[in-house]
Request: fold
Amino acid sequence: MGRGKSKGAGKGSKGQNRKNTESFLDKNRQKEGVKVFDSGLQMLILEKGDDHTLPDLNAQVTIHQRILLTDGTVIRDTYQENTPETFPLQEAIPGLKEGIPLMNKSERSKFFVPPELAWGKRGAGDKIGPMATLIFDIRLIDFF
Reply:
């Protein structure tokens, strides 16, 4: 697991997380290169892929990912662990189901995922609080 600031550092209350989410996403949407989709998902391409094929929702994807909270707390980092993950895209959170199919093979992008497209009001485990926005730094290694 990646290193966080402290156990539960990003948990927060639903109200506080909602306020932080709105502020973060409003500021982020103004940054150069950030694309904003109708769903609220935000995307920034970090490195263009050299293969212009795109996965569909039925694909198995192999990715590296760094998952962070907006305060910088690292939830997971497969880059550091050097252990890419393979999973059916259908099993991903809604924000990644929307975002990963927009990526070319070998592309690296950041997704800024609002809570409605992640774990919403319930959060996840002891690290992702209710109404938390997540940042995914993803490299699409392969899909089949």
In short: The chain has three helices and seven strands. Residues 17 and 23 are 10 Å apart (CA to CA). The chain has one domain: 14-143. The mean pLDDT is 91.
